[in-house]
Design goal:
The N terminus is likely disordered. Strand 10 and strand 11 form a beta hairpin. The chain is built from nine helices and eleven strands. The chain folds into two domains: 152 residues, Regulatory protein AraC (Jelly Rolls); 108 residues, Homeodomain-like (Arc Repressor Mutant, subunit A), CATH 1.10.10.60. With 272 residues, it is an alpha+beta fold. It has a five-stranded antiparallel β-sheet, covered by helices on one side.
């Protein structure tokens, strides 16, 4: 891209179809679905949960924006502890390719996230008024927001390298999370070296491959704890932790409680 020219998609403005700013109820979930012909951009300034798109599951945080292309399946799972605040815009844009315009996961620096969050709120506050002049301002702000996110994922005018190894690695870990897999196994599935995979994975997602894998295992273990009566050792085996002591330690570190404590808490909440 020429650093001194406006990217071609921004010679036309996006057409906004839907906006929403919502505080979720605890443990709310949006199951896997897709939208034909519509892009979606999500931002979560508060709360915790996971966002899944294109087979990858990412921990939600305030510095991450999620970009979903038309017909791309995605789902969101909110936390039972820390409810999500969710800003959403759905839009059409004939100047944007369905693949490659933005990464599905746009993790940016805190200062960029603050600016982008302000633009997102301006998009919503103008679009909800639904009058022509307000919709025009909302479209301008959305174009500015998309350009900001695009620039934040570039280095010296050169786009972030091909994310296919990262996508392949995520898919492999989602399929084999219950197995005893090594970084060599994951890199081999992506057709690259462990060193290169760790570098590009960290660059695109902000996490290491095994931080991602650990998060997947924790989420799967939570579902087992909520929906089955299996003992902790069996759940540890089924979700890739191997031994009960491993799942106990990691749950305590990441969830703030042991698996048994999490199960008791989930049972109480389900009865309410």
């Amino acid at each position: 891209m020429n650093r001194h020219s406006l990217p071609e998609p921004f010679t036309r403005l996006p057409q906004i179809y839907f906006v929403e700013y919502l505080v979720w109820e605890k443990s709310r979930q949006i199951e896997a679905h897709a939208h034909d012909g519509v892009f979606q951009l999500d931002y979560f300034p508060q709360g915790a949960g996971t966002y899944s798109v294109d087979g990858a599951t990412i921990e939600i945080d305030a510095n991450t924006f999620f970009f979903v292309a038309p017909s791309q399946r995605h789902e969101i799972h909110g936390s039972s502890e820390n409810p999500l605040e969710n800003a959403t815009v759905k839009f059409g844009h004939p100047g944007i390719d369905t693949d490659g315009f933005l990464p599905h996961v746009c993790r940016v620096h805190a200062d960029v996230a603050s600016r982008a969050g302000t633009l997102f709120r301006q998009v919503i506050s103008e679009a909800v008024l639904k009058q022509q002049e307000h919709m025009a301002i909302a479209s301008l702000r959305l174009a500015e927001l998309l350009l900001l996110l695009r620039r934040s994922t570039e280095v010296d005018g050169v786009a972030v390298p091909d994310s296919r190894p990262v996508t392949a690695a995520r898919r492999y870990m989602l399929e084999h999370f219950a197995d005893d897999i090594s970084i060599g196994d994951v890199a081999g599935s992506a057709g690259t070296t462990p060193e290169h995979l760790c570098r590009v994975f960290k660059k695109e997602t902000g996490d290491t491959p095994f931080t991602f894998l650990r998060g997947v295992r924790v989420e799967r273990a939570k579902k087992h704890l909520e929906s089955t009566r299996d003992n902790i050792a069996a759940i540890a085996q089924a979700t890739g932790f191997g031994q009960a002591k491993n799942i106990n330690r990691i749950f305590k570190n990441l969830v703030g409680m042991t698996p048994r404590e999490y199960r008791r808490k989930a049972l109480v909440e389900n009865r309410q």
